[in-house]
Amino acid sequence: MRLYYSQRRYVAPIQGAAALELDHIKVTHSGRNTPVVQGISLEVAQGELVALVGPNGAGKSTILKAIAGLLPTQAGSISIFGLPIGACHHRVAYLPQRGEIDWRFPVSVRRMVLTGRYVHLGWLRQPGANDNVRVNEVLTRLGIADLAERQISELSGGQQQRVLLARALVQDADLLLLDEPTNAVDAATRDAIAETLNTLRRQGKAALVATHDLDHLMEFDRVVALQDGRIVADAPAALYVPDQWIA
Fold this sequence. Notes:
Elements: E1 20-27, E2 37-44, E3 49-53, H1 60-67, E4 75-80, E5 83-84, E6 92-95, H2 109-114, H3 129-141, H4 157-169, E7 175-179, H5 187-202, E8 206-210, E9 222-227, E10 230-236, H6 242-245
């Protein structure tokens, strides 16, 4: 199972820098000639929640993976708190789409969520009491403490999504990258994710969230719409009109 942002690097952020800044980035998938993301520039301020919307193939997941360091950029630059990718791994947490995880992997919910703490430990240290306390706190907050010792293969889709969110939250990152966190989940999980976003806002953390859930965009500060690898709209959530900007 891949552990995102698993290297331990502590570098102080640049004072006053945006949580995230993309400067004309281009990203091309292996085996393709045309960039999936074509010259996108985007800034996310500290404490800002931004929704990425657009049809399948628009480039939402590709952008998140590039920011997470999982895909290389062919042009442009990415800055996180004023620093290049890799300079502050512990400040960024990435939640992949549920389908990218091998849910047959023999690990308990607690152990999987605990991997979110590894970025603070490095490879040679074992999790300590404080790490386990943090895991328990997040499991309780998301309503899955009773599943802690269950194997992840036994979970429902909504439970799986909460586990992924818990793993991201225990990292205590300042920038969260969430890829379709509300896709095909039950109402209770959807409410838990909404409350999590509200908590992040209150804590002054930033989030960039790829979503198809256009009925709940008011939970965000801004909406950025993509089509064919380009930004076609960038507006406050209250002013965003999907049919006006996306064909």
